[in-house]
Amino acid sequence: MMSLFTKPGLYAAALLLSTGLGACSTDPNDPGVEYAPEMYESIPYEPLRQTSFNTINAFGINERTPANGTVPRGKLNYYSHIPKDSVRIAERTLNNPYAYTKANIEEGQVLYTRNCQHCHGEKGDGQGPVGQKFKGVPNYSAGAYKTMNDGHIYHVIQWGRNRMMPHGSQVNPEERWKIAMYVRVLQLNNDPADLSKLVKVNAPAPTTSAEEGNASQQTDGANQKAEGQAQAHTGSETPAQGDKGRNGSM
User: Fold this and answer.
1) How many whole angstroms from its chain centre is CA 97?
2) 83-87 long-range contacts, Cβ below 8 Å, gap at least 24?
3) 10 in any annotated domain
4) What's the alpha-carbon Rg for the chain, to the nearest Å?
5) Could you tell me if residue 60 is inside a domain?
6) Residue 39: inside a domain, yes or no?
7) Per-residue pLDDT for the chain (250 aa), expressed as one digit of tens each?
8) pTM to 2 decimal places
9) Residue 164's beta-bridge partner residues?
């Protein structure tokens, strides 16, 4: 009876011992024998994780190059599709869709500080820490740089120029336009205090009845008149004939 229980026990002990020895390795990158790896290794291919050679995709990798002509979701307007060396076309064809409000220019100032100041300097004079080291960074308020329009600035931010690298992947189209607004501020006198000189719009102008002919209480409260009180305690001035019309006079 003792041998019947001992033999299976020995088999189990031998199996556990061999598994333990097989799971050990001197290679720190070798996980050894993994129990039920399907529980933590994804069976579908994950593009940003490579655990084994992919026998289906090119080069044996999970991540694939998008098909030619495709645009990632939400990136349709990310690039203007003007060639990178065609800044003159950008000057003529690109128009800033955002108003020169104080809020937009101030946001442009924040974005400029984060993305541009290290080279172009706080005042746009090319004296940022990087600009001082490598030289050749332009002064926005001097020469032809003083007259660059929004489309020119937007295009250079997107594609880069000369030694300036492209920043199209770092700042989205809206951010580029707002940076361009703030660069226009620095074109005036290399002085961030000139921001107020570029503010053209503070808020949308109210619509009036004279302009639109259909003023409502929401858009033109000054021209609205009360229609009167309910006057439940009074009778009609013209009994059985209805009230006088209140839609205007001839």
Assistant:
1) 15
2) 84/158, 84/159, 84/160, 84/166, 86/155, 87/152, 87/155, 87/156, 87/161
3) no
4) 35
5) no
6) no
7) 455 456 666 667 766 666 665 556 677 777 677 777 777 777 777 888 887 888 888 788 888 888 888 888 878 778 778 898 999 999 999 999 999 999 999 999 999 999 999 999 999 999 999 999 988 899 999 999 999 999 999 999 999 998 899 999 899 999 999 999 999 999 999 999 999 999 986 544 443 333 433 333 333 334 433 334 444 444 445 544 444 544 444 4
8) 0.57
9) 161
Indicate the number of domains in the chain.
1
Query: Which residues lie across from 161 on neighbouring strands?
Result: 164
CATH code, domain with 130: 1.10.760.10
Tell whether 178 is covered by a domain.
Answer: yes
Domain that holds residue 194: 87-198
CA distances from 7 to 12, 18, 76 (A): 9, 17, 70
Six token digits for residue 210: 């004279």
Return the exposure string of 208-237: e unless at least 16 CB atoms fall within 10 Å of the residue's CB, then b. eeeeeeebeeebbeeeeeeeeeeeeeeeee
What does 138-178 look like in DSSP terms, one character per residue? PPTTSGGGGG--HHHHHHHHHH-BTTBPP-TTTS-HHHHHH
Query: What are the φ and ψ backbone dihedral angles of 5, each rounded to 5 degrees?
Result: -90, -25
